[in-house]
């Protein structure tokens, strides 16, 4: 069932459907972002710190409750570990991949791009400790634009996609690009 943003939420141009504890945000209450996650829960970690996963809306990135082309930017940072071993706190913090992770992430990409406007931006984060990023990029037909590696092992990938416009689908410049092409002539 479609989830309709209320008046305040309809102003939000950014969706993060798997926002966890919002660790990478400059402002964890950024009013431009609609924060989602499949769980809403609070924990105290072994070192005493609080871990709060309290999304604005509980949602499943495999089946997002939004109309097509709703957002300008989608941030997608799904779980990257299928085997979290004894380190249960990692599972609490980052979540974990299910047995059908390939199908789940394929559906996640498809949904993120569906709810993005044409030429909208998807910011994707992936740590390839267990699964190489090449396998993950093969799960979407959308084309990455730029990428950057970070972390001590250089195994965290930040990848930006721009959703295809009509011209990419049929091989001809679409209406969205016409003004740009005309001004360059
Ligand atoms: C890597 S963490 C996100 C960390 C986050 N970017 C941050 O800055 O703290 C991945 C999150 O995806 C959530 N998740 C797992 N499966 C999901 C699904 N099907 N739909 C939505 N969220 C999901 C997990 O609960 C977890 O909080």
Bound ligand species: S-adenosylmethionine
Q: How many DSSP E strands?
A: 9
The CATH superfamily is Vaccinia Virus protein VP39
* Gross geometry: globular
Q: Please tell me the total number of domains.
A: 1
Count of separate DSSP helical elements? 5
What is the topology, as strand order, of the major beta sheet? 5-2-1-6-7-9-8
- SSE succession: EEEEEEHHEHEEHH
Mean pLDDT: 88
> Are there runs of 5+ residues with pLDDT below 50, and where?
172-185
User: What's the architecture, going by CATH?
Assistant: 3-Layer(aba) Sandwich
Measure the end-to-end span.
Answer: 46 Å
Protein model, in words:
The structure is a single chain. The protein contains 5 helices and 9 strands, in the order ββββββααβαββαα. It is globular and about 50 Å long. The chain has helices spanning 88-94, 101-115, 133-137, 166-170, 178-184, and strands at residues 14-16, 33-37, 41-44, 50-53, 57-58, 71-76, 116-127, 144-150, 156-162. The protein has a single domain, classed as Vaccinia Virus protein VP39 (Rossmann fold). Helices cover 21% and strands 27% of the residues. It starts with 13 loop residues before the first strand and ends with a helix. It is an alpha/beta fold and 185 residues long. The chain has a 7-stranded mixed beta sheet. A two-stranded antiparallel ribbon has the order 3-4. Strand 8 and strand 9 (156-162) form a beta hairpin. It binds S-adenosylmethionine. Residues 17-24, 37-39, 53, 59-62, 77-79, 94-95 line the site of S-adenosylmethionine (SAM). S-adenosylmethionine (SAM) binds at residues 17-24, 37-39, 53, 59-62, 77-79, 94-95.
């Amino acid at each position: 069932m479609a989830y309709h943003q209320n008046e305040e939420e309809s102003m939000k141009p950014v969706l993060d459907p798997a926002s966890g504890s919002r660790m990478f945000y400059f402002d964890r209450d950024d009013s431009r972002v609609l924060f989602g996650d499949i769980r809403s829960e609070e924990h105290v970690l072994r070192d005493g710190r609080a871990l709060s996963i309290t999304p604005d809306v509980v949602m499943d990135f495999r089946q997002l409750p939004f109309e097509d082309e709703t957002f300008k930017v989608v941030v997608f940072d799904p779980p990257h570990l299928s085997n979290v071993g004894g380190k249960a706190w990692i599972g609490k913090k980052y979540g974990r991949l299910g047995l059908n992770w390939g199908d789940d992430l394929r559906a996640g990409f498809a949904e993120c791009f569906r709810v993005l406007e044409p030429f909208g931006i998807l910011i994707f984060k992936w740590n390839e400790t267990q699964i190489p990023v090449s396998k993950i990029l093969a799960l979407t037909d959308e084309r990455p634009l730029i990428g950057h590696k970070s972390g001590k092992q250089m195994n965290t990938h930040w990848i930006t996609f721009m959703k295809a416009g009509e011209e990419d689908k049929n091989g001809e410049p679409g209406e969205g690009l016409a003004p740009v092409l005309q001004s360059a002539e």
